[in-house]
Design goal:
mainly alpha; Herpes Virus-1; two-stranded antiparallel sheet; 5 helices
Length: 93
């Protein structure tokens, strides 16, 4: 169950542009979702809502996205923690 602060955070993350599209300098073609990072989590564990990354649908669940073959992360040379840092930085701007 998410707290009010976590729900506010998720709404703010979803309001950001996709950090991976921005990093790759490609146009974002779909709405932003909040991806819960997997780094440091067990197989069946979900990261807390505060550990979410702003990603468009294609970068999140697309064939080359985080839940696909991760090609976009390899091209950008970034990890999920790096994307989390970019998301947190964008929230402070």
């Amino acid at each position: 169950m998410s707290t009010k602060a976590e729900l506010r955070h998720l709404i703010r993350v979803r309001g950001l542009p996709c950090v991976l599209c921005k990093l790759l300098d490609i146009p974002q073609t779909s709405h932003t979702t909040a991806h819960h990072i997997r780094e440091g989590q067990g197989m069946s564990q979900k990261a807390p809502d505060m550990l979410t990354v702003a990603l468009c649908h294609e970068c999140h669940q697309g064939k080359q996205g985080i839940h696909g073959d991760r090609t976009l992360l390899k091209i950008a040379k970034v990890s999920e923690l790096g994307l989390l840092a970019l998301t947190l930085e964008a929230l402070q701007s």
